[in-house]
Design brief:
The chain is of the alpha/beta class. The protein has nine helices and nine strands.
Length: 208
């Protein structure tokens, strides 16, 4: 199972790197994340240059697509040519967005009437798309999820792991990276945020 972590120029390092790092702790179980970029090299909002692991066209074959945020997301959604390269299918893919990545989902018409989570800065722009923004770190309906706040990327990653490998796998990953002395509360907080776990418990795992 392959995960495309879509990373645009001006990206937020916390969004792309936390999600990909957590998911890649499950490589031995067949779940692997790749930094997916529209150009061979992208530069973060802090000036860090990163070479993409997969081209943008990889999103069409990935089982999971996570769209990160950044300082140029509004430019992204205004670029018809770039948006046209994001061919996504929520009937067969898990699709998630971090912070301003919700703007991309709105631009693609994937949110519909679904409310979304995003960061404080992006909120007015997401609302201007007609999307209701929740005061919550994570929300999911079906195969689509959104997360708000940089550190909420752990919830997005945990959602992917839970939906593909099960709740126990998500618990193990969060427990491993949680601060010493705070492991139990960190795991419990992450799992509480994942409303999608109800689907996992009833056997509605999408990808195997």
């Amino acid at each position: 199972m392959q995960v495309a972590v879509v990373t645009f120029d001006g990206f937020n390092e916390l969004d792309s790197f936390i999600a990909s790092a957590l998911i890649n702790r499950c490589r031995k179980d067949g779940l692997e994340a790749f930094i997916t970029t529209p150009t061979p090299v992208v530069t973060s909002m802090s000036g860090v240059e990163v070479t993409g692991q997969r081209p943008m066209e990889f999103v069409t074959e990935a089982d999971v697509v996570l769209i990160g945020s950044g300082v140029k997301t509004r430019d992204v959604v205004a670029d018809d040519r770039l948006i046209s390269r994001l061919v996504l299918d929520p009937s067969r893919q898990l699709i998630g967005a971090q912070c301003s990545g919700a703007l991309v989902l709105a631009r693609l018409g994937l949110l519909g009437t679904m409310p979304a989570c995003t960061d404080t800065t992006s909120r007015p722009f997401v609302e201007a798309c007609g999307v209701t923004v929740l005061d919550a770190p994570f929300h999911t309906e079906g195969n689509i999820a959104t997360a708000g706040g940089c550190l909420a990327s752990q919830y997005l990653a945990a959602w992917v792991i839970a939906r593909t490998l099960g709740e126990d796998a998500a618990r193990d990953v969060i427990d491993y990276v949680a601060p010493v002395g705070e492991k139990q509360e960190t795991v419990e907080r992450a799992l509480r945020a994942l409303r999608a776990l109800r689907a996992v418990r009833t056997g509605e795992t999408v990808l195997r």
